[in-house]
Design brief:
globular, TIGR00266 family protein, 6-stranded antiparallel β-sheet, alpha+beta, transmembrane, 19 strands, 2 domains, Double-stranded beta-helix
Amino acid sequence: MSDNRFEYRIEGSDLQFVQLTLSPGTVAVGEPGSMMFMDDPVVMDTVLGDGANEGFFARIAGAVKRAFTGESMFSTLFKNPTTQPQRVAFAAPSPGKIIAIDLAANGGAIICQKGAFLGGTQGVRVGIAFKKRLRVGFFGGEGFIMQKLTGTGIAFIHASGTLSEQTLGPGESLKVDTGCLAALQTSATYDIRYVGKAKTAIFGGEGLFFAHLKGPGQVWLQSLPVQRLAKGLFAHAFSARGRSPLGRLYLVAIVIFVIASLFIEPRA
């Protein structure tokens, strides 16, 4: 696949990375810590905000918005200063799928879960998508704030587990676990609904609320939110009987690592 500034291809099945081939003089932007490898001539630079060419105070504002949406306040730029194509690759932070989204083909914006942005064309901005209804903020799996990516280039986002793309027609709706919503077009609406029965809410294991998506628009769903994976590992580590102390210690170490990865931001 290609953008007018670089070509890209997504490699792997469940542990993916995306490789970009930068045209001479072009720049790609990536989240700090996402780089997997790059050709030796590629120049890397860390900047405040989204990496766009703008004033200092605009960069400060952009950095604050990024922090609110689960990203680092800094971006890393990768520039090809040569006359030959050069490569840079970004790796996914956890098992799942990388999605390449052409923002221009999606009305110039897309809404996605917190911390989903991996990298893309220079000029892609990470903003805040506020929810109009407070119950969405209090009970939605992604919280009151989601990411809103804007621009005209390619944005790469990450979804955990297996990816399901659903296209909803006008008036069509879908009920989704709140943590399984990875991204949606701005034409689709997102609300929180009560499951309906107290018995189901308490003993059903799906929680008190689910996400209600309504078309028209495309939505991307993820099968295994990282929080659900961490919860499963944690429960398994401490409920297993007959396991050797060394085996339990090994599982606890894995659980601690997974949980820590949810809250510790990589340094620029």
